[in-house]
From TrEMBL:
Its cofactor is [4Fe-4S] cluster. The lineage of its organism: Eukaryota, Viridiplantae, Streptophyta, Embryophyta, Tracheophyta. It comes from the Eukaryota. One of its GO terms (molecular function) is ATP-dependent FeS chaperone activity. One of its GO terms (cellular component) is mitochondrial matrix. One of its GO terms (biological process) is iron-sulfur cluster assembly. Pfam families: ParA. This is Nucleotide-binding protein-like. Belongs to the Mrp/NBP35 ATP-binding proteins family. It is found in: Mitochondrion.
Length: 296
């Protein structure tokens, strides 16, 4: 049986059922035409969160045949335009909304597509949130099954505000195997729990390096840390991605490895991650979670 037989019904409430008497308040948090919004997050930078978001979004679009958008919410360090090979600025529709730039079957929006590559944004919190508001509700996304949000690293004001202002269906936590990264991953889990966002699971990036000569795996950053952390927290472990030269070169060249080498072991690992994420979203929808009232 095909696990992903159809697009999610447009306009359906997924992930959460709205509480009685709270519909108008919560409905304002939704983005028109978008069924599910998921955050790809990490407790710290440098764990490959953006690379994961890109390859996950493209894998869901290609392998699960769903309509996908990708929002680069890292305003200070936008990397999606390079990783997705996006050129030019978004056009503006007749109703004054930006039209996302599409590549590899994914609709993308990033601050990196709106400002010069060399420009440094020296903005305080209110300006950042205004920009993110424009890149979410000020965009004509069309009909999307899932909008993947590449979150800023960490657990500060921007991350909390995004979680409160968008009706997130869930968050995927990205970590590497070493203890210091997993400690920050736990902080990310706690942050999302405090703002009532379900954790879809934890995935481990840079799990090991496979020697190109002998195929022996080398666990450079430790072994099994994310799996152990997921077990301790009672959460799903959604998969592991090895440390691979092709992933890095694909990111630099703007051709994700799931496009440049779709039959590789790494691409299959991303495909499995995509299926696990979509399957978890479907499970959450069936369980009819309720989101409490949110104070903005």
């Amino acid at each position: 049986m095909n696990r992903f037989p159809r697009h999610f019904a447009p306009g359906a409430t997924r992930g959460f059922a709205l509480q009685s008497g709270k519909e108008p308040h919560l409905q304002n948090l939704k983005i028109e035409g978008v069924n599910d919004i998921i955050a790809v997050a990490s407790g710290k930078g440098g764990v490959g969160k953006s690379t994961t978001a890109v390859n996950l979004a493209v894998s869901i679009a290609k392998k699960c045949q769903l309509k996908i958008g990708l929002l680069d919410a890292d305003v200070y360090g936008p990397s999606i335009p390079i990783m997705m090979k996006l050129h030019g600025k978004p056009e503006v529709s007749a109703d004054k909304k930006m039209i996302p730039i599409e590549n590899y079957g994914v609709k993308c929006m990033s601050m990196g597509s709106l400002v010069a590559e060399s420009e440094a944004l020296v903005w305080r919190g209110p300006m950042v949130m205004k920009a993110l508001e424009q890149m979410t509700r000020g965009v004509d996304w069309g009909i999307l099954d899932i909008l993947v949000v590449d979150m800023p690293p960490g657990t500060g004001d921007a991350q909390i505000s995004i979680s409160q202002r968008l009706q997130l269906s869930g968050a995927l936590i990205v970590s590497t195997p070493q203890d210091v990264a997993l400690m920050d991953a736990r902080r990310g889990v706690k942050m999302f729990s405090k703002v009532n966002v379900p954790i879809l699971g934890i995935m481990e990036n840079m799990s090991y390096f496979k020697c190109p000569n002998c195929s022996e795996p080398y666990y450079i950053f430790g072994k099994g840390g994310a799996q152990k952390t997921a077990d301790e927290l009672g959460m799903k472990f959604l998969g592991e991605i090895p440390l691979e030269v092709g992933i890095r070169s694909g990111s630099d060249e703007g051709v994700p490895i799931v496009i440049s080498n779709p039959d590789s072991f790494v691409s299959q690992a991303y495909a499995n991650l995509a299926k696990n994420v979509v399957g978890t979203l479907e499970d959450l929808a069936k369980k009819q979670y309720f989101r409490p009232e949110i104070t903005l």
